[in-house]
Amino acid sequence: MSQEILAQLVAMSRSLGEPARDYVILGEGNTSARANDETFWVKASGTQLHGIDEAGFVRVRFAPILALLDAGEVSDEQVKDELAGAVVGFVGKRPSVETAVHAAALTVGQARFVGHTHPTAVNAILCSQQAEAALAGRLFPDEIVVCGPVPIYLPYIDPGVPLARAVGQAIQRHQENYGESPKVILLQNHGLFVLGQSAQEVENVTAMMVKTARILVGTYALGGPRFLTPEAAARIRTRPDEAYRQRQLD
Hints:
The chain is of the alpha+beta class. The protein has a single domain (2-249), classed as Class II aldolase/adducin N-terminal domain (L-fuculose-1-phosphate Aldolase).
């Protein structure tokens, strides 16, 4: 079963890394998938999503990675050693620097697949002065159907363990407030994390967030965004036809 999951992760990663999509270039971005309750696959540091194969991933154990999040202040050298020690077997590759964020998303966030990208369209907003305000509302029904009711938005935080801690805490707050895990985490001056129950869901949500970003930027040519009312957005989440359509997409 874990090899089947790895095959799905490879296909998803290649799709996210397609140059024409403009989600990532060079070694940007990373992806992961839960192998079982004890381990997960994550992209190896320095590899490219475009054209990646099974050799571009390492299998790591959750326990030592999650322990880092509860360990208080840790040095870069300690993190490097713990990441290396979490690898299953000897493969000669290091896990991505974002491995701890993936561990939080796959455990606290209850995801099965995770995709982290830096889409130009999304980062054009996340690197702007008005990013948080611009992303404060929902624009159209399919954004809600595919991406969920509300994304998490976080200010810039040092990638690695500090970011993973903040992500884990933000996911818990989101679950308390909305009764479900988020699908989208927006990182100021950084990029996009998508949490999915399938590889296809990660691809779908990423694509819809990029479309949303393009529409949002376009609205400023005509006075800025007109967000859906909270009542209209909530209604979309409760419509049986939209719930059915969501199931068909994933």
